Amino acid sequence: MRHATQHADVATDDPLAAAEEAGRAEELDTALRGGPFHVALRAAIAARGLPLQRVQHHLSRHGVRVGVTSLSYWQQGARRPQRPESLRAVRALEEILQLPEESLIRLLAEAEERSAAQRPAARSYRSLVEASDVLDRLHAELGWPLDSGLHSLGHHERVRIGAHRELAARESHHIVRAHRDGVDRFVAVHHGDPGCAPERMTVHALENCRTGRVRLDQATGVLVTELLFGTRLRSGDTFLFRYGVEDGTAGPSREYVRGFPSHGGQYALQVRFHADALPVRCHRFAQHSAAAPRSGRQELPFSGLYRSVHLVEPRVRPGIIGIGWDWD
């Protein structure tokens, strides 16, 4: 059994130094009892008197590779270890820092439980099904089949989060190929966050298209717009176009989700945050369908310089892909 009272192996007759060491020990014991995780980790490292480079060296001797930057983020609370390799590092840290077994792991689990309790639930299966039913109806109103006649070769999407943490806008750049003759438009769909007002949203045709008819459903926050190409494609023809949606009508946004009804080409999603609204951590996730549980959760590096996070899927499959983030 490892004990929290085993700290730096330094003996001294200096009363001031002894008092400082006793203070660090007391701070560590308090942090290990009540957390949070990052405070306990920082106190343990300080009590042992180890610079982060030495901590990294000790971890490597345990067969765990963790960067100094990650260790710094962990003890600052900017990120929490979540991946299996990171959790192995936490268990190794308990031994390296001479802490009781499961002490850091317990605090980490408690932090995750608190985050889950505070985090609003993701879009429910019911809401996704309702939105799907609405899409069927709106497509019928436009007289356009659900099969658009277009195959996606590439879809690059940029989402902008505003100063009030809201989904402010998004822009989509599509590369498509027609698989039947006569295709002359694309039906763009925007599904706003809960509480949004689709009647106050604006669609902008940015390149190689113009807006046509618009339909919306306030209950589900769905907006559907025709993007007219101005030319009829023949089967096998490719086409590039770009459009944007100004939103900003809902409260704080916590994720962006994109659904794919069929196989396609590359999909890239970038989320950029306002300087006054930066997340503390970001992750990607996937779902095989609206009814399936989320899987493939993976922490994503956040670029503080460009205030953005992104994912790239080389070839999409039917299902759902998204990026989520935590504000605090």
Which architecture of the largest domain does the CATH hierarchy give at level 2? Answer: Sandwich
State the CATH class of the largest domain. Answer: Mainly Beta
Q: Name the strands of the widest sheet in spatial order.
A: 4-7-2-1-9-12
Number of domains: 2
Tell me the span between the first and last alpha carbons. 34 Å
Assign a percent range to the helix content: 25-40%
Shape: elongated
- The tally of helices reads 7
Listing every helix as H and every strand as E from the N terminus to the C terminus, the arrangement reads HHHHHHHEEEEEEEEEEEEE
Mean pLDDT over all positions: 85
Low-confidence region ranges: 1-12, 117-121
Strand % is 25-35%
Structural class: alpha+beta
Rg over CA atoms: 25 Å
Largest sheet: 6 strands, mixed
Total E-strand runs = 13
CATH topology of the largest domain: Immunoglobulin-like
Can you walk me through this structure?
The chain has 328 residues and is an alpha+beta fold. It has two domains: 15-118, 434 Repressor (Amino-terminal Domain) (Orthogonal Bundle), CATH 1.10.260; 125-326, Immunoglobulin-like (Sandwich), CATH 2.60.40. It is built from seven helices and 13 strands. The chain has helices spanning 15-34, 37-48, 52-61, 68-76, 84-96, 103-118, 125-142; strands spanning 150-161, 167-178, 183-191, 202-207, 210-217, 222-233, 238-246, 255-260, 266-273, 281-287, 295-300, 308-313, 319-326. The strands form three sheets. The chain has a six-stranded mixed sheet with strand order 4-7-2-1-9-12, with no helix packed on it. A four-stranded antiparallel sheet has the order 8-13-10-11, with no helix packed on it. It has a three-stranded antiparallel sheet with strand order 3-6-5, with helices on one face. The protein is elongated, with a radius of gyration of 25 Å. It starts with 14 loop residues before the first helix and ends with a strand.
